[in-house]
Amino acid sequence: MLFGFLQPPQSPFDPPSPLFNFLSSPLRFLVQHFYHFAISLRPPPFKLQQERTRIRLVCISDTHTHEVSNIPDGDVLIHAGDLANQGTAAEIQAQIDWLSSLPHAHKVIIAGNHDSFFDPRSRLASDATKSISFGDTHYLQHSALTLSFPNRGNRQLNFYGAPQIPQCGGNEFAFQYSMSDDAWSNTIPVETDVLVTHTPPRYHLDLPHGMGCNYLLREVWRVRPQVHVFGHVHAGYGRENTYWDPGQIMYEKICARERVGLLWDLVDFFAWMDTLIFLYHELQAMFMIHIRGKESTGGVMVNAALMYKNTGQLGNAPQIIDL
Q1: Are strands 319-322 and 56-60 parallel, antiparallel or unpaired?
Q2: Taken in order 41, 42, 43, 46, is the CA torsion positive or negative?
């Protein structure tokens, strides 16, 4: 039994055991846990609007043909891809019809790798002449959208959606690119408030070995949206505040280090230096916020996958973000 915990996961979509993570890179393991503990002590990354002007985003992803009965109310419903399993037009249309039936004033949808119909390279031959009726939903594919909210103080939010993911499967998967290819740089408008992608940025609500995209991470650093919604990695479900500061830079640098095992990790001078620099920046940030009263600014990342890990069953709740 213990031997199994020492092995890497059999599927790239499964999370490794905590014991495997620790033994393969104890410094990274400790840094990851301290980072999430440290950001949990910080105040929210942005100030909430007054309740009458507050915009509620309800975020879901990876429903894989399932219709969810307990979707919370909100102003905008966001689906970050993988509506389908086989990616047929019929599967996707059934999901869009379900989303259209929900009471949210706005629905924003992107595709995922299982939504093969949307990518001509992966579309089934039997669907070649078929089309999708989007109803009252907004489908984004490398495109932007501005939504207005007259009942929320005439506020507006700028959305951008894109479906591409680093390759993780065969030709039946849509919108794939090689992990070494840059599919993101300078593609997202800088005025984007809410970014919707299917893949996560690397190292954030991602699997420890990194199924997310490093180029997307760089692009998100450039744009710094208030909210970034994604899915794809079911085991990464959750939310994480981002503050775009030196501590986050060092956290991502340490996560990018190669796993070299217990002994070498503990004697690697440069790994220890990076860890000490990381700790300095995180402690300094907490001092400036809690002692000096400096305001935090940043955003929030949301992995909204409703599918529970690799079980094929829904088990995660929709995520709610108030702006």
Answers
A1: antiparallel
A2: negative
Residues 122-163: pLDDT tens digits?
A: 999 999 999 999 999 999 999 999 999 999 999 999 999 999
Residue showing tokens 């984007």: 192
- Only one residue has tokens 């090689």, namely 178
> Over the Cα atoms of the chain, what is R_g?
20
DSSP β-ladder status, 137-139 and 143-149: unpaired
Other beta carbons within 10 angstroms of residue 5's beta carbon come to 12
User: Which positions ≥6 away from 264 have C-beta within 8 Å?
Assistant: none
Closest to 207 in 3D by CA, of 178, 168, 237, 227: 237
Q: What is the DSSP letter of 258?
A: P
- Asked if residues 278 and 31 have their Cβ atoms less than 8 Å apart, the reply is yes
Nearest residue to 84 via CA among 58, 62, 99: 62
What are 192-226's pLDDT values in tens digits? 999 999 999 999 999 876 789 999 999 999 999 99
Q: Which secondary-structure segment (H or E) carries 253?
A: helix 246-255
User: For 210, phi and psi rounded to 5 degrees?
Assistant: 85, 85
Largest CA distance in the chain: 64
Cβ neighbours of residue 28 closer than 8 Å, sequence gap 6 or more: 21, 208, 254, 255, 257, 259, 265
